[in-house]
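testing teh design pipeline on a random one, pls ignore if ur not involved
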């Protein structure tokens, strides 16, 4: 397969340019909103205003945390030399782990407003997230960023500008962290489950999928491999997620408090 050259600008109106990357985020929030409304009807303990605020708080947490996390985890020297780079979102550069921390903080604020417990909200939110992650990775693919390693595998994609074939790691992530993770969490959450278990499953499988894909993805050039000649920042940040997820899942099934 050959990588199709895609203009990152979806629509140029002259006075404003609309980027595919931004549209992918819009699709992510729209998908989360629609899924949240569907889940609210199934659970019957969430109302419209709560859903709207949940998506708003989550969107702020994702964008602010994702961008700040990228600058701190992956691009700190450039950020320190030019702090205004944090606003250049159209160029890409969002960290899932930073966005995840941003969402956690946003959910704490949301819970204070509506007097909900932390894991009640996070168990509700977890199945809404993967499709958004998938859309984000499609944005990376359109931007021609975060490519995988050079390969002669039939799973590779020829990039004419570079004259080499690489693993389309963005599409691998969209498939595993997006579609497959969504199916796992959506099916699992369709039945009554112990409180915390849905959140735990998200942590385990996202961390596992991300850890695996990092083996074929090129590490960020400014960081390279951190140690052992293979460990990347993405893997380092994913390991605590897996460990914490396993601990939470064990706790959930020991307590067996149904959400």
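output:
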């Amino acid at each position: 397969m050959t990588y199709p050259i895609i203009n990152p600008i979806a629509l140029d109106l002259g006075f404003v340019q609309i980027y595919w990357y931004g549209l992918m985020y819009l699709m992510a929030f729209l998908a989360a909103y629609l899924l949240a409304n569907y889940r609210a009807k199934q659970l019957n303990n969430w109302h419209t205003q709560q859903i709207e605020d949940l998506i708003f708080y989550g969107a702020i947490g994702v964008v602010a945390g994702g961008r700040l996390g990228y600058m701190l985890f992956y691009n700190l020297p450039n950020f320190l030399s030019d702090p205004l780079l944090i606003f250049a979102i159209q160029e890409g550069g969002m960290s899932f782990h930073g966005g995840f921390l941003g969402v956690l903080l946003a959910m704490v604020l949301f819970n204070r407003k509506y007097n909900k417990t932390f894991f009640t909200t996070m168990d509700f939110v977890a199945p809404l997230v993967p499709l958004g992650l998938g859309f984000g990775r499609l944005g990376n693919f359109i931007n021609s960023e975060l490519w995988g390693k050079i390969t002669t595998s039939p799973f590779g994609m020829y990039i004419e500008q570079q004259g080499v074939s690489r693993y389309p790691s963005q599409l691998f992530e969209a498939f595993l962290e997006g579609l497959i993770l969504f199916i796992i969490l959506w099916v699992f959450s369709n039945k009554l489950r112990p409180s915390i278990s849905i959140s735990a499953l998200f942590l385990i499988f996202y961390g596992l999928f991300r850890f695996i894909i990092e083996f074929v993805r090129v590490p960020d050039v400014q960081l390279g491999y951190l140690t052992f000649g293979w460990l990347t920042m993405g893997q380092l940040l994913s390991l605590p997620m897996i460990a914490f997820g396993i601990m939470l899942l064990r706790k959930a099934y020991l307590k067996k408090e149904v959400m």
